[in-house]
């Protein structure tokens, strides 16, 4: 059951929701089902051994929307970074 990001076509609110089976999600602000699925950013961390045996860390994640988390989108603080 994937988590998708949506933007409501009625009120413009962006949100994330867990989609169960074929159920149609609805906007938590206005209950509309007129939604546009957004492109989600994803990230990874890669660690490798560099020159002199030092560990190098590379990340693909964008900057966080809030200081409290490392994700580019956070459901707990309603910060969202979407492309669209």
What does this structure look like?
The chain is mostly beta strands and 84 residues long. The protein has one domain. It contains no helices and seven strands. It has strands at 3-8, 14-18, 35-37, 45-49, 55-59, 73-74, 79-80. A hairpin with a 4-residue loop joins strand 6 (73-74) and strand 7 (79-80).
Topology diagram in text:
Blueprint lengths: L2 E6 L5 E5 L16 E3 L7 E5 L5 E5 L13 E2 L4 E2 L4
Antiparallel strand pairs: 1-2, 1-3, 4-5, 6-7
Query: Based on helices, strands and strand pairing, what is the structural class?
Result: mainly beta
| First-last Cα distance | 23 Å
The oligomerization state is: single chain
Q: Count all strands and give the number.
A: 7
Helical stretch count?
Answer: 0
What is the arithmetic mean of pLDDT?
75
Helicity, in percent? under 10%
């Amino acid at each position: 059951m994937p988590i998708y990001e949506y933007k409501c076509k009625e009120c413009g609110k962006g949100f994330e929701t867990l989609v169960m089976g074929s159920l149609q999600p609805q906007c938590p602000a206005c209950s509309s089902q007129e939604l546009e699925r957004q492109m989600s950013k994803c990230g990874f961390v890669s660690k490798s051994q560099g020159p002199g045996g030092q560990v190098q860390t590379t990340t693909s994640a964008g900057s966080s929307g809030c200081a409290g988390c490392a994700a580019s989108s956070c459901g707990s603080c309603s910060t969202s970074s979407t492309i669209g």
